[in-house]
Write a structure and sequence with these properties.
Elements (H helix, E strand, L loop, with lengths): L8 H10 L6 E4 L18 E4 L3 E2 L16 E2 L3 E2 L7 E2 L2 H9 L5 E4 L3 E3 L4 E2 L14 H7 L2 E5 L11 E2 L14 E3 L3 E6 L2 E7 L5 H6 L5 E9 L3
Parallel strand pairs: 1-2, 1-7, 7-10, 8-11, 10-12, 14-15
Antiparallel strand pairs: 2-3, 3-6, 4-5, 8-9, 12-13, 13-14
């Protein structure tokens, strides 16, 4: 039986930005999380933060001919300038993170488990991972959201009872947003809150490597 259609990366990003509160300071990781910069609500003031020393920047610049080489975030990705945007030194930027001043960190994930452990920096067999500021952000942010595909390109499960890849940060994940579901990490385990159109709890459980607690008010994802 063919599975229902999965959500696009754009819709996944919209789910994350849907729940950001007005005035939030938000750090976006590379990859999928960067999509969130393009879907911020105009009714809310969301201050995007980069470890490189930016606060209050705008969407990613897709046309590199229009990019400012001095205005980039992690990975050298060019971003848009916003009125009121501020610059700071690298140490000041990490002081914001380590001081607990980042409201939400949106990070990518290789694996997340039922205890909220996160592995997102190193694959087995690779000589070294790409840590960057991931540990600081996952631990220092008031809330950590992992935005990732529910399974790998080989259909391997990424939400597990226990991560098998090297951990980036233990017990740091609060919410997982995937291309099929929204799952919260609670004290009792993983709570399935929302599912994509055409999906149900049984379908999501079948591609999840940990037991899901079904929210009595489980609903279809709405933007």
């Amino acid at each position: 039986m063919n599975e229902p259609e999965r959500l696009t990366r754009e819709i996944m990003a919209m789910i994350v930005t849907r729940d950001l509160f007005d005035g939030a300071i938000v750090n976006l990781g590379v990859g999928l999380p960067l999509e969130c910069a393009n879907f911020l609500s105009r009714d809310k003031e969301i201050l995007l933060h980069s470890e490189l020393g930016l606060l209050g920047f705008g969407p990613v610049v897709n046309d590199y001919r229009k990019a400012d080489p001095y205005l980039t975030m992690v990975g050298g990705v060019p971003v848009t300038a916003h009125p009121g945007m501020s610059f700071m030194s690298h140490d000041e930027s990490f002081a914001l993170i380590r001081g607990g001043h980042i409201d939400v960190a949106v990070l990518g994930g290789l694996q997340v488990d039922q205890e909220g452990n996160l592995a997102n920096t190193q694959l087995i067999g690779k000589p070294a991972g790409n840590l960057g500021g991931a540990q600081d952000l996952a631990y220092g942010a008031k809330k950590t959201v992992v935005l990732m595909y529910h399974t790998t390109s080989r259909k391997e499960k990424k939400i597990l009872e226990r991560c098998t890849l090297p951990l980036t940060t233990p017990r740091c994940v609060n919410r997982i947003v995937t291309d099929v579901a929204v799952i919260d990490v609670e004290n009792q385990g993983l709570v399935l809150r929302e599912v994509a159109t055409g999906w149900n709890a049984e379908m999501v459980q079948s591609i999840t490597g940990a037991n899901l607690i079904i929210d009595p008010e489980l609903k279809e994802i709405e933007l």
